[in-house]
């Protein structure tokens, strides 16, 4: 009898609290005492088989709230119309389809959309959870603003001229249509990625099509940074999201200082996020807030060298449509400043071989920080985010070539730093020589040092 009574109380408690959007459930749908932070089997950490209680009254409420929000068909049409209106600085493409076959549409903004350039790339991902639709609306408002303000507003112009911005308004269109957190199969997509701390869906075939699409996207394109938009809290969340002991505590990743800088940049640019009483400065380490496993944020950083934030942009998971314009205004400068920071700060450059100037997809690391990024395979460009005002030793390594390192003092503006690597077995012929680095000219990126071909015999090292 006692066990039955306890179970009944637990069931009623869960049923009662499911009616209220809580900040603790925004990012992951779990309370701090959830299966994801308990001692349950690792296969549960991903939440891939978890089905939330279906509440018909709650669904009716969401149906009412959906009035004023775009349907999936409306969203696709709006993106195509916008692309036609700004065809010189945008393009649209798909990265895959949802369980129910809805295309996952992406809009790219650049002065040369679709072309590979030696520029950093940023991506926004909205609607990861179907019942958090604010991101899809806000991201379309962002796209329209960029379209309307290119060559008029300096920030819009900087972003489009110096960054390749990719916007995926809805990662989970099926969940949105069904008014559910998970996708059409009932999977929480923010628990479906490979995890640093515990094995989650290690087989690619076991993952959901939306997850596969994101993973393939990062294999095809090199993103410098990223942000996913959620609802249910007001905070900028950064890695790590999990812990090895499955307990709630601060768990810093190697680039903790840079992530804190990025999160603070967004929070301070937001109308009131930094004033949070719950989160100091409006930012939080994910594991300190509450651990999750199989999340997209940590996977981006580990497997893609992509610095991703999880942005909770509204306390209400599904606010009335009449509030969308205000939410956009509150978040606009945070979104713009975060993307623009890729061009305004950090270290950027190319890695070439001293024999004939071949592009090298070298590894770029910072002494004392246990993480690396890769220069691109085609253009050999790299873009390393770092906190301004510090001294760093930047190291370029490539199999078959001698390592090279340079100490820099990173100022408030972006710095250009090219590397010319010598093969371990020298080749006869021409060599490349370049100045090591110089600060940008103030436009956010600067130019790369001009390379001069000189006879190999005349090159002094």
What key attributes describe this structure?
single chain; 461 residues; alpha/beta; 8-stranded mixed β-sheet; 5-stranded mixed β-sheet; 12 helices; 29% helix; disordered N terminus; disordered C terminus
- Describe the largest sheet: 8 strands, mixed
Order of adjacent strands in the largest pleated sheet:
1-2-4-3-5-8-6-7
What are the low-pLDDT stretches, counting only 5+ consecutive residues below 50? 1-25, 30-54, 433-461
The fraction of residues assigned to DSSP E strands is 15-25%
Total strands: the figure is: 19
Q: How many helices? A: 12
* Protein structure class: alpha/beta
Helix content: 25-40%
Rg value: 23 Å
| End-to-end separation | 83 Å
User: What coarse outline follows from CA principal-axis ratios?
Assistant: globular
Question: What do the pLDDT scores average to?
Answer: 84
Task: Offer a concise description of the structure.
The chain has helices at 2-17, 42-45, 56-65, 72-85, 134-149, 154-162, 173-178, 209-220, 256-269, 286-289, 296-304, 324-344; strands spanning 90-97, 103-109, 121-125, 164-168, 225-230, 233-238, 283-285, 307-314, 347-353, 363-366, 369-374, 381-384, 391-397, 404-409, 415-417, 419-421, 430-433, 437-439, 452-455. The chain has 461 residues and is an alpha/beta fold.
């Amino acid at each position: 009898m006692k066990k039955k009574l306890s179970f009944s109380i637990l069931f009623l408690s869960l049923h009662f609290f499911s009616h209220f959007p809580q900040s603790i459930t925004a990012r992951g749908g779990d309370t701090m005492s959830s299966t994801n932070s308990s001692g349950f089997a690792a296969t549960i950490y991903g939440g891939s088989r978890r089905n939330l209680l279906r509440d018909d009254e709650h669904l009716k409420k969401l149906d009412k709230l959906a009035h004023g929000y775009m349907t999936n068909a409306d969203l696709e049409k709006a993106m195509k119309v916008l692309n036609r209106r700004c065809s010189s600085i945008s393009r649209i493409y798909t990265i895959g389809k949802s369980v129910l076959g809805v295309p996952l549409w992406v809009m790219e903004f650049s002065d040369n959309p679709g072309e590979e350039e030696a520029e950093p790339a940023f991506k926004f991902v909205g609607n990861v959870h179907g019942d958090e639709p604010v991101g899809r609306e806000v991201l379309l408002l962002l796209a329209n603003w960029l379209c309307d303000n290119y060559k008029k507003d300096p920030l819009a112009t900087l972003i489009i001229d110096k960054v390749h911005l990719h916007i995926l308004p809805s990662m989970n269109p099926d969940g949105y249509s069904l008014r559910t957190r998970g996708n059409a199969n009932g999977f929480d997509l923010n628990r479906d990625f490979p995890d640093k701390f515990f094995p989650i869906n290690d087989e690619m075939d076991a993952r959901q099509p939306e997850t596969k699409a994101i993973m393939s996207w990062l294999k095809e394109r090199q993103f410098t940074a990223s942000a996913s938009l959620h609802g249910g809290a007001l905070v900028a969340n950064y890695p790590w999201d999990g812990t090895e002991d499955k307990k709630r505590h601060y768990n810093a990743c190697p680039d903790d200082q840079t992530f804190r800088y990025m999160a603070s940049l967004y929070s301070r640019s937001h109308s009131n996020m930094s004033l949070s009483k719950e989160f100091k400065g409006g930012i939080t380490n994910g594991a300190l807030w509450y651990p999750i496993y199989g999340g997209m944020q940590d996977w981006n950083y580990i497997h893609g060298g992509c610095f991703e934030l999880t942005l909770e942009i509204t306390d209400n998971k599904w606010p009335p449509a009449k509030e969308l314009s205000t939410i956009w205004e509150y978040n606009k400068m945070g979104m713009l400043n975060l993307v623009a920071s890729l061009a305004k700060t950090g270290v950027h450059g190319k890695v070439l071989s001293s024999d004939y100037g071949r592009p090298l997809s070298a590894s770029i690391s910072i002494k004392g920080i246990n993480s690396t990024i890769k220069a691109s395979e085609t253009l050999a460009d790299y873009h390393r985010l770092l906190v301004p005002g510090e001294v760093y030793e930047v190291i370029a390594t490539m199999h078959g070539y001698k390592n090279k390192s340079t100490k820099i003092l990173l100022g408030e503006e972006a710095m250009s730093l090219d590397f010319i690597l010598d093969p371990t077995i020298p080749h006869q012929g021409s060599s490349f020589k370049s100045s090591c680095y110089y600060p940008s000219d103030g436009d956010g990126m600067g130019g790369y040092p001009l390379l001069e071909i000189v006879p190999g015999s005349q090159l002094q090292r």
